[in-house]
Every structure is written in C-alpha cells, then in structure tokens.
Here is the input.
Amino acid sequence: MGRALSAHCDSGTRRHLLALGSRYAEYVGWLVQETGDERAALWWTQRAVDLAAAGGDRALAGYALVRRALITLYRDDAEQTVALARRAQSRALPPRMRGLAAQREAQGHALAGDRRSCMDAMDRARALLSLQDEGTDEPVIGTMHLPDPVGMVTGWCLVDLGQPREASQELDRQLALVGGDAVRTQVRYGVRRALAYASAGGIDHACDLAAPLLDGVEAVGSATVTTDLRRLARALARHANHSSVRRLGPRLGTSSRPSTF
Here is the structure.
C-alpha cells in the first residue's frame, strides 16, 4: 500500500510514506513474532527493510539484524545472537540502533555464560543509548516503556549468567520505575524476575510475584513471555511440595502452554 501510494507523490511525500510503511511493517513483524510465527516475523521485518531502502533509509537493515538476533536468542543460539548483533553495530548506523544491537549482543554473551563480554557490551550500550540522534525526525526504534533499558537488560542477563540474586535485585529496582499501564513490559520482565527469585531459592516469593502476572500473560499473548514462563514452571516443579507451588501450579501450567496463543 505505502509503495503504491508513493508512486503518485512528489519525492518528499514519497519518502515519508515509505518511511511510515516501513515502520508499520516492522511493528507487524514484532507482533507476529509474539505469536510464535518466526517465518512470518522474518518476512515482515524484511518487508520493512525493503520499504525503508526504497525511501532512501538503509539504516533499518541494521535493526532487522537486531530483530533476527532476538529470534536466535529465544532459540538459545548464543553464537548467532552475538554474530547478528555485532553486524548491526556499524558506525554508519545511528547511535540508538547500535546501542540496541549492543544490548542484544550482551544477551547473547549472557546466554553463553560470558559475564565479562556481556558487561562490556552493556557498557557500550549505555554509552550509545545516552547519545541523541541529531538531525532526524524519524520515529524512535525500540521500546519506549523502559526508563533505564540498560539496567533492565542487565537484570535479564544476570539470570542467564547464573547470578539470580543479583538479577532479582536489579529487576526489583527496574520494575519499580515502570508504570502500571505498561502491562506488556511489567509482564515480560516480571516473569523473569519471578524466575530469578525461584532460581535463587525464593520459592514462595517467586510464586507471589508470578500469580498476579498470569492475567497479564493471557492478555498480552506473547510467545517470548511464554518461553520464560515455561522456565519458571520447570524451576518451581523442583519444589512441588511447597504449598505456594501447589496453589500456583495448575494455573501456571495452563498459562505456559504454547497453545494459549
């Protein structure tokens, strides 16, 4: 649609229409990925890149690599996640995009258990995300609901690095900064916080944190959240004799099934 309309416009309007179409396609790709359809997510992401390129914007191709790295992250493929994220850190790309890529690289290193490389990447991400992209009126790429995205992703990474106590403390701090209306963000990182507490042995508190999130899990319908929810269910299953686990177990099992979505 955007490409068809742009064919009948002047060059400036055409560029804006193609940019708008590319952002919509990128957003649709993210939504489709949240349903668990990786093939469709990759198709829409590539469509976004093509529309952006037709309008003279080659930078979105870098963000497409960040999105592809999210897919490999949830496949537990640390090597591919790091490789894709590094490719998206070209100096030709805007600082924000490179910062998001550095965050994804950190998540890949965390998955591989490499704390030093993870924290180095997080330091780069913080420096890049602190810079403002000047001279552009383009829509902001990436989430807008994280007051401190680097801090939140650091908490995320600490879970995969086997540091659940540090992770739970960091995620406590970060989630306290997120507004209650940001339901998807509260659910996504809240489930990971519950996983951190469960991994650290705080079984009752993990259940207390998880219980109020389950309505939100069903409402947002996120395949990525469900991945962590299944991890939480497995961690709690090791403590099946806890009364809090017995109470939460049936509903947690229902919410963590892929068929929910």
About this structure: Residues 1-8 have pLDDT under 50 and may be disordered.
